[in-house]
Amino acid sequence: MEEKARDTLIELKHIKKVFEDGVTVIEDLSLEVKKGEFVTLLGPSGCGKTTILRMIGGFEKPTSGELLLNGKDISSLPPNERPINTVFQKYALFPHLNVYDNIAFGLKLKGLDKKTQEEKVKKVLDMVDLAGFEKRSISTLSGGQQQRIAIARAIVNEPEVLLLDESLSALDYKMRKEMQLELKEMHRKLGITFIFVTHDQEEALTMSDKVVVMSDGDIQQVGTPEDIYNEPANLFVADFIGASNIFKGKMVGKKQVEFGGTVFECVDDYDVDTLIDAVVRPEDVEITEAGKGQLEGEVLTCDFKGIFYVTNVKTDRAEVEIHNLKSFRTGDRVGLNIAPDSIHIIPYDTSINHYEGRLDRLLPGRGFMIVFEDFTLQDIPYSAIYPGAREADEGHELLDEKGQEISWQGAGVVVSFLPEDAVLSDDPEAGFVTGNIFNFIYMDDHYRYRVRSESEEDYIVNDEYLWNHGDHVSISVPMEKLHFERK
Ligand code: ADP
Ligand code: MG
């Protein structure tokens, strides 16, 4: 589909938001919204969606950064001077006013004459399919009808931008589906820009021109619904956007990848030995006869979901979820095939688990003590930092291979490790650093955890055991798995 060239309407440039309590909710966020677009901010609860919407609407001020509308900074304009209207999560209708007065409220404030007011109210009531409801009191309306009145009240001001914050979340499933279609239709008819917020991935994918996937105050990916679904930029997006099989593996040849104990042809090309995660959608795994698959396994469960079956197959190295139209019995032996273009490869983010520190002192006969922001490492062999180095003068100096003194004091060092080389423990003394489980993803035969320390550093750890969000854990890594580099 060809994207129409559209002008930029709203621009957020390096927006930072720190609330009065000192918590930084958004560190550095940039986003462009084009004229007439239907943009959805999608992410789990608490990731900052409402905060962004409130800044655009004028109910919160960014701590720093620019907020532009048609190229002009609007960050100090009050809400009523912005050509922007908001439909809040709670509809915030006036319960003591009837439908007409609720919708006409803003028009009265603007001092429009009675006749114009009536015309405008009638027009938007038609638009939301509630013609003739003028005299009804709010309390006699269903949730869906109240939602429509809230939308009518916002669009009656003819804003350039309509902000909708989880506006459909309070509706039941059937009503929500209906309102999704109606909102899309309204967007088409009005031709204005919609910025919609939801934590529901299906809602985001069905409604939007552009989806902005967020986590923890950061944008993870911006793209069309198809982009986001088919080409997730990272594991967070892959996991959040829908059921996925995520395998840990590595490249073993030209467009050849190994995971689950098998080599697969794929369509992405990365250097041999690159560590990767392979994302495979459950509907892209084919179940075949035992002996005829790239993977072999046993059916653990098979559940009918109304339109398709969800089958879980255990191979000797992984658990694989498959969606298809066939039913299987627990214990059936089956083969599994995955076509090259169904394997989406995400190379390891090489910047994860890298921490900067300083060489602090020599521990005579033992090694370096290195101080990092969150932790201190002791007894680090000199040769891990300076190959061939040895201690001299009873630990008072360090010499290189040629016997020259090394000036190491205060030198910068980066330590790094792979997620699979780290181990979690509930004993705070067991590891070198502690933190709380912040989020996790189920992978082929383990979980991948994000652990956040008190100073808000993140650590990524693969672990086969199930921990819960919020668990306090310590992280340890065997010395030989720590990688050091001088800065
Ligand atoms: P979302 O809409 O994605 O669920 P919010 O934008 O409401 O997320 O909140 C993001 C984070 O900011 C949350 O951790 C929330 O507790 C915090 N937060 C929101 N409003 C305030 C406020 N007025 N003061 C302090 N923290 C806030
Ligand atoms: Mg919210």
Summarize the structure.
This protein is 18% helix and 39% strand. It has 487 residues and is of the alpha+beta class. The strands form seven sheets. Strands 6-7-8-3-9-10 form a six-stranded mixed sheet, sandwiched between helices.
Q: Could you characterize what this model shows?
A:
By secondary structure, the chain is an alpha+beta fold. It has 3 domains: 2-230, Rossmann fold, CATH 3.40.50; 243-347, Nucleic acid-binding proteins (OB fold (Dihydrolipoamide Acetyltransferase, E2P), Beta Barrel); 354-486, OB fold (Dihydrolipoamide Acetyltransferase, E2P), CATH 2.40.50.140. Helices cover 18% and strands 39% of the residues. The protein is built from 9 helices and 32 strands. The strands form 7 sheets. Strands 6-7-8-3-9-10 form a 6-stranded mixed beta sheet, with helices on both faces. Strand 28 (433-442) and strand 29 (447-452) form a beta hairpin. Helix 2 (99-109) crosses helix 3, helix 2 (99-109) runs parallel beside helix 4 (143-155) and helix 3 packs across helix 4 (143-155). The radius of gyration is 28 Å and the shape is globular. The relative contact order is 0.08. The mean pLDDT is 93. Bound molecules: adenosine-5'-diphosphate and magnesium ion.
Radius of gyration: 28 Å
Q: What is the count of helical runs?
A: 9
Q: What name does the CATH topology of the largest domain carry?
A: Rossmann fold
| Bound chemical compounds | adenosine-5'-diphosphate, magnesium ion
Termini gap: 47 Å
Shape: globular
CATH architecture of the largest domain: 3-Layer(aba) Sandwich
